[in-house]
Design a protein that fits this description.
TIM Barrel, 245 residues, 38% helix, alpha/beta, single chain, globular
Length: 245
Amino acid sequence: MKNKIFVSAMVFVLSLTIVCGCGGKAENDVKSDAKIIRGRMLAVENTEEKTVCLTFDDGPTPVTERVLDVLKEYGIKATFFVIGKNAERYKDILRRIFAEGHTVGIHTYSHEYKKIYASPAALADDIKRCLCVIKAVNSEYEPIFYRFPGGSFGLSEELLKVPDSMGLTSVDWNASCRDSEVRSADALSLCAFARETAGKKTKVIMLLHDAADKSTTADALPRIVNDFKEREFSFISLEKVVKIS
C-alpha cells in the first residue's frame, strides 16, 4: 500500500528541448528548460505505442474555428486551454468546442502575467474567474486541467500549489510548434518545429496556439497532423495521457 501511495504522489518530468533549425544554436532567448507536469497524477502511460496530444492555448478566437474545422476533418479530439476574457467574447465558439467533444482546460482569465502571478491569492482569483466563464457556457462541465501562462517553469512553489489546491492538474508540454516564439515563421516552418521538438519521444504533448494572431498555426495544422500520421502516431485526448485520481 505504501508503494502505491508513493506512486500516486510522484511528479513525472517531461523534458522540452528547443533548438532552432539553423546551425544548432539557441535562438534569441529561447532556453532548453525542463517542463513539468504537476498535480494529482497516478501515472503517465509508458508504452511502445506512439501517441500525440494536441493542446491549444489562448483561445477562443475566430482562429479557433479554423482549428476546429481541421480537427473535425481528421476526426481528432484536442484540448483547449481557454482565456476567460476571450471566452466571454466568443461564447459560441466555446460552445462549439464543447459540442464537438474536445477537452476544455483553464489557462487564465486575463493572461496578464503581473496580475496573475502577483500572489497565490491573485492566481486563485484569476482561475475562479475563468472557471465562472466556462460554467456560464456549460454549467455541467468540470474542468480538470490547468495550464500556467508561460508554463510552470521558474514559478514559486507557492504559485505551483494553487491549481492543485483547487482540484486542478496543471499540465505543460514536451513539444511545441513554436508559434509564440518565432512569430515570423510560416506554416512549413511551424510543422518543422513541431517535428523537431517532438524528437524521438513516443508520448507527445504538443503546444500550439489559437489566439487571434495565430492564423499561420491554423494553416500549419494539416501539415502537422499529416506529419505525425505518416510517422504512425495516433492522436489521443489529454485524459488518456494524464491519469487523474
